[in-house]
């Protein structure tokens, strides 16, 4: 299996479609014949569960990080080829979670899934920065809004300070008739443009339904954008899944996948895990303006 299979989906600010991108990219990759797991790495302000109809999940990433549950206990099968690990929403479970354990969780899952997608929280804190360093590559999400682009710069700097690597940019809520092109935004951030997701009412409707837009409205402009993004990561070809994980209960699937290595993407990071000191220093240096 390729070393470059763990991607952190990040943004400089909230409300840009980061979780929507994580869920739809994961679903599109699964639809192309891969085993995928999406993880709510926004440990402090979890919201992935609502996007995939897992509200009220009994066991979450918080329980795993508190050493009160196994990874399989918190692993929920969503559909053929895709599973999810939600984070908890109560303060007590958050306080008990040892966030540094995320690196161990990721390492164990990368051996069982073709792709591991981390939905990273917005803002600057230890919890939101840590996933940037444990991934093989960071996919940065931004809208064309100048404030969103400016905050994206901070995420790029934080990623570099945690030994991570931003592999490219996805521009969401894009309007072809807007004042700035997606290529211009990518050039401004010195990033490769991985894809654009058009402004599309189908996205809002899919969120209300708790169903990814690539399933809810597969022929919509937004769904097409997410499928093209998945194809970009796959190198333009689908993979067949020779031994899909068995259907069963909503959680506890082993998610094991066999087969050939997927194509890696250009510019991926080296997969070095950031230490707690790396993360803390990165945040402090950014705050100090160094």
In short:
With 290 residues, the chain is an alpha/beta fold. Helix content is 38%, strand content 15%. The protein has twelve helices and eight strands.
Mean pLDDT: 78
- Which structural class do the helices and strands define? alpha/beta
| Count of domain modules | 1
* DSSP strand content: 15-25%
Helix content: 25-40%
By DSSP (H or I, 4+ residues per run), the number of helices equals: 12
What is the CATH C-level name? Alpha Beta
Overall radius of gyration: 17 Å
Describe the structure.
Helices cover 38% and strands 15% of the residues. The protein is α/β, with parallel strands linked by helices. The chain has one domain: Rossmann fold (3-Layer(aba) Sandwich). An 8-stranded mixed beta sheet has the order 3-4-2-5-1-6-7-8, sandwiched between helices. The radius of gyration is 17 Å and the shape is globular. 53% of the residues are buried. The C terminus is likely disordered.
How are the SSEs placed, and which strands pair?
Elements: E1 6-10, H1 18-31, E2 36-40, H2 48-51, H3 61-65, E3 76-79, E4 82-85, H4 91-96, H5 102-110, E5 115-119, H6 126-134, E6 137-142, H7 146-161, E7 166-174, H8 182-189, E8 193-198, H9 201-209, H10 213-216, H11 221-234, H12 276-288
Keywords for this entry:
290 residues; alpha/beta; Rossmann fold; 8-stranded mixed β-sheet; 8 strands; 38% helix
